[in-house]
Every structure is written in C-alpha cells, then in structure tokens.
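Write out the bound-state structure for adenosine-5'-triphosphate.
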Amino acid sequence: MRASKYLIATVKETPSDAEIVSHQLMLRAGLIRKLASGLYTWLPLGLRVLQKVSQIVREEMNKSDAMEVSMPVVQPSQLWEESGRWQKMGPELLRFKDRHDRDFCLGPTHEEVITDIVRNEYSSYRQLPANIYQIQTKFRDERRPRFGVMRSREFIMKDAYSFHASQECLDETYAVMHQTYCNIFDRLGLNYRPVIADSGSIGGSTSHEFHVLADSGEDEIVFSSESDYAANIELAVGTPAPVDDEDDGESKSRELVNTDQASTIEEVASKLETSPQRILKTLFVHAANDEGERTGNLVALLLRGDQELNETKISKISGIASPLEFADDELIQKKVGCSVGSLGPVGLSDLGIRCIADNSTSEMHNFVCGANKPGHHFINANWDDDCSPDAIMDIRKIREGDISPDGKGTLSIKRGIEVGHIFQLGTKYSAALNAKVLDKNGKSVVMPMGCYGIGVTRVVAACIEQNHDAHGIIWPDAIAPFQLVIILIDAHKSEQIVEFGNSLYEQAQALGAEVLLDDRDKKTSPGVKFADSELIGIPHRLVVSPRSLADGVIEYKNRVATEKQLIETDAIASFLQQLFS
Ligand code: ATP
Ligand code: MG
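---
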C-alpha cells in the first residue's frame, strides 16, 4: 500500500474524551472514528487489524470442527418471547417495529436464532455434537458505553453455540473450546488468564472468562501464587489469613460497654483497643419473597470487621432482594430500634430478622459487636451463648493475601479485561424452544447447550492496552496492520530514492510481507513520517534517505528496539528474506 493513496488519519493531540490509552491511541493512530455514543467506524488501518483478529479466531474455530454461519442481526420478537427474554431483558435489548407494526430487536446475542435453526435441522444424536459459530455485529444498548470499542453499543463478537445429546458430550466440547480459546489468545500474543466465572442468571453451571491483564480492566481477577486456581472476584473463594489471637481461647461472658460516638469499625477498634478482625460487622439488606419481591423485612449479614461483602455472592441467596439493596437508617430504626453504628446480631432472632454469617466469622470468639443500643457495643460475645446465625455461607469478597481454596499458595488480585466467555448453558434455551433430538435409545431428549463468545473488537483495544509505549502502539506481528513500513526521505529531490524505495517495496511484498510505502510528498515532513510509523505501531521500519544511500546503507529499526541498525544496500535482499520468510 502506498501511503500517498491511503488514509493515514493520524492525530497529534490526545482526544480529550478518551480516558484510557487504547481509546486514545486508536483515535490518534486513525484506526477508528466515533459516529455517535458507542458507535464507531473502523477506518482502513483499523479494519486491517480487526480482520486479522477475526481470521485467527476463524482459523482456530475451524480447526476445532466448528461450522461458520451468518445469522441476521435483526431478529423477530416471537423467538425472544419463546425464550422469555422479550420480557426479561432490560433496555439493553434495542426493540423496534417494522412497517407492518411487527416487533423486532437488534441481536445482542443469538441463542434464540441458533436454537431455532438447530431444532429444525437436527433430529438425531448421531449428528451431534454440533458447534456452530459466526463472527458478526451485535448491538447492546449499554447504559454507559465507554472506552471506545472496549465497551461500545455496536461491536463484533464471535459467538458459537454447541448442541449435544448428553452432558458428557457437552463437557467434551467445552474442554475443546477452552483449549481453542487458549490457542487463539496465544496466537494473538496476549498476556491473558482463563478464570472461573459467574454464569449469571443461568445458575450454577460451568463457566470461564478469558481476561487480558491490564490495569485499565473493569474486572478484578484472583490468582493463586502456587496453583492454577484463578477466578473472577465475583465468585472467588478462599480463606482469610488467620487472626493473630491474643486471646487464650476461653469463652468469657458478654459485657455491655459504652462506646459513645464510635460508630465505624475503625473507631470502635480504637476505642476498645482491639483490631477490626475481632469485631463482628452487621449490615442490613432488604429481604425478598419467593418471587424476588421486597417484603419490607430485613436480613442481617454478618462479617468479620476487616472483611467486605461480595455483592454477587449475596445476590444469589434466596430471600434477599436482587439487585442487592442496603436498608436505610429509617427502616433499621423502625425494625431494630437502633441506628447504624451500634448494630449487632444479639436479639435479632427475637425480632424475626434472619441472620446470615460469613464462613470466616465461625472462628471468632470473645468478639465485639454492636449492642443494638445507641452508643453501646458488647465485648466478649460468643456464638451459641449470645447469638446464632440462621445460615453460615461464603458472602465475603476475597482479599489480597487470602489462602487459595485448594490450600496451595496465597491469592493476589489483578485487573483484567474480559475478552472471552465460555459457558455451559444446560437446557435453558433448548427446553424453552423445545429443541430435541432422538437419543441412542430412540428417546426424544432436550439438547444441553454450550455457548462461547469472543469480543473481537474488544480484543483489538485490549491488545493495545497491553502493547504500547509513549510513542504509540506496538502491534504483535500476528495482527499488525502492516509488517513493514518503508519511509522515503526527500523523494522529491532524488529519483534514486523513489526507485530504491519501490524496489524494496516489491521485494518485501514478494516475500509475502504487508508493506506500507510512506511515499507521501514533501508536505509530510520526515519527522511526521517517523512519528506516524511509531504511533501506528508497524513492527519493522526501513528508511531510504539520500544521505544513507550515498553511504551505501539503509536504516532499519524494529518498533521495540532502542537502537537503529544500518544495513548495507547489497545485503538488504537477504535481510528482508530473514525478516519475512
Ligand atoms: P461485560 O461483562 O464486559 O459487559 P458480558 O459478560 O456482558 O460483557 P458476554 O455476553 O459474555 O459479555 O459476551 C461475550 C464477549 O463479548 C465478552 O467477553 C466481551 O469480550 C464482548 N463484549 C460484551 N459486551 C461488549 C461491548 N459492549 N463492547 C465490546 N465488546 C463486548
Ligand atoms: Mg461475559
């Protein structure tokens, strides 16, 4: 490609509305342009990268025997009514009517459409497993589109759906997809981790997310220092490091003490000269009935004072309003007769308030807790003697340094960008849409399903988050828009520069390299050409200038090297061969 005839839409200034580096660099390097909130055009350079990512995904999916299809973006409401999601999904689902007043939506995902295809086209277990995918536009009317293509409203996803006649068969395909995802992210040159993930409203089934590690990531992921345990913090489990116990273990008698104005855990700890680990924290949330509606009652959640609540874990407990809602002071006053600051579990069962304690509180003894009397706490409270929770569960957010659930190593927390998500759907959609096949015994069975997504457009942004420096993007070779840029200096002064440049261009292309020949005229200064090549992040750069040609050399620089290299003009053919064959 000749830069003089190519859209090089680089921008010097950092756009003010771009918060994270990938968004800034994608705009500055001229990869994308914003059309409206969460809607982006992929310019020629950006599209080259996007197509390379898609192609790697496609090749690896094909290797795993998945079949590519293309389903419509526009989907009729009927299928969504069959699955129940027409009502259930919120405003993220963009609904509209056609000229005949029929309801449609823009597909945020394609479970309904693919299940409809499979129920019509498949009839026997012999045809299974079937793993069907597409690489295609999705639309989600995100509440807060941000970070450019990282969280946009329109984006490209590779979505695959597998169908099976048995759970074992689903387990096998799931394992193949897990490996396929590792192969894809390895080829993309990303530093990533598969982590155990929450399967959301679908419930307890198997699920993994693939996260690219980056400080700008919106998720927190938890790893063990000594095993392969890795999980999204939403559901990560572990044991808090043991409390330094200055107590001799004998249960003492509970005593009421005046704690005046001390209301936070820290204030109480300092007033009573103890540590937050020895204080029981009591939080009140709204209770819900079996239908999930708020009842006006409270549920008390009990945690060790140094620990925090994990809202995802809580939202799965039946009897608690979801989304989780903390009770306000007025309601707590009404139900408990005391306001926030001196709340505790003693006597709550007499008030009909359900108490759920975190696992880590079981070990506590002679602890401090609020006395449900303004300005007062108990010291030396003990389970059984003074109060008993209705349930003991894991409701705690993992903290750095906790012990891994497999007992091997300690846990650390890093930020990650979710680029892929695989999960076992079970029969949620196939049962709703009545997608059945005949099994070995001639019995009609509902097909268990798996689904497997990769955010193709998000991968491009995530890759930049991981691969950049102060000058711009540093593409891994596999997805660079061009592998080589040849910069011509003062070409208007010397025909020899043009000829030499052209010959390099042709030689490199003949070796299969994708080459950008920067033949822009004198209006584009050498400095701008250098800066653009670094901003765009092309891995290899050759510079043809009158001075170097006179010396019989060509200047080469790798995007990540600090030093330039001079290559004899006679040796350039073999140098190119080394780079590109
Ligand atoms: P997130 O938690 O980031 O909103 P999600 O869990 O809703 O994502 P999935 O339904 O699992 O997303 O979709 C599969 C993949 O599609 C995600 O792993 C992510 O890479 C990508 N993706 C999802 N939403 C967006 C978006 N708004 N913009 C770009 N990519 C997205
Ligand atoms: Mg997800």
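---
The mean pLDDT is 94.
The pocket of adenosine-5'-triphosphate (ligand 1) is lined by residues 109, 140, 142, 151-152, 155, 157, 418-421, 453, 455, 457-458 (CB under 6 Å).
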